Amino acid sequence: MAETADPLDGGGVRSVKSAERTIALMEYLSAAESPRSLREVTCDLAIPRASAYALLVTLVRTGWVEHDDSGSRFRLGIRALRAGAAYVEHDDVVQRAQPVMNDLSDQLGETIHLARLDGDEIVYLATCISRHSLAVVSRPGRRLPCWVTGLGKAILAGRPWNEVDVLLPETLAARTEHTITDRAVLREQLAEISRRGTAVDEQESTLGLRCFAVPLDFGDTVNEALSCSIPIVRLDDAREKVIIDALLQARERIIR
């Protein structure tokens, strides 16, 4: 039987430069920690000033980008929030995981996260916030390097090392003094995580915080993971066992 061509594989279709520039601009603003000026946009994205200005004006008019009171610095607009919220609301994994996450949060009283691998980063999809005043929360949409988090390591451990090695950047940048930056050490830890079934972020992304994570393996390739984050001042061996057991039980409820 002849194979049917995928209409979205892009074969023989030229890219639309204005669309590519718009996407690059939106991704640039989404990653920015503060509003950006027209000059910064043109320099960082290598877009001609006139083109960048026209894109920004169009996006401001349509609500996808906003400017500050001076009109000279730009950030994502409320329509971008709407699009991101729609992605999460209609995501099958989030819909399956959210009720279980709510129960897990009620049971443990700690912050629960769901994340997905995207390139060499994890993206937080859903969060249940700890009831304690001392808590670290990663809001949906936040990105972190996959090798610095329990969530990322739980996902990577479900893949062959040659695939992981290609996915990772040449240099594993550190976020804290505890971050694993040696490939050989990371490979050994991923093998241990694969055998154990759980991953731990030992203050590797945030000082004072330990994160326990389990992979959510719905098929051949693991793309998502579930975690519980807790300040180390509230943690002891007995509490650690309770958290790991609860995560494993939650995992089974989500993937079954």
From TrEMBL:
Ranges of residues in domain IclR-ED: 79-256
SMART domains given in the database record: HTH_ICLR
Domain of life: Bacteria
Pfam family, one: HTH_IclR
Alphabetic keyword roster: DNA-binding, Glycerol metabolism, Transcription, Transcription regulation
Matching PROSITE patterns: HTH_ICLR (PS51077), ICLR_ED (PS51078)
Domain named HTH iclR-type: residues: 16-78
GO biological process, one term: glycerol metabolic process
InterPro entries in the cross-refs: GAF-like_dom_sf, HTH_MetabolicPath_Reg, Tscrpt_reg_IclR_C, Tscrpt_reg_IclR_N, WH-like_DNA-bd_sf, WH_DNA-bd_sf
Name of the protein in question: Glycerol operon regulatory protein
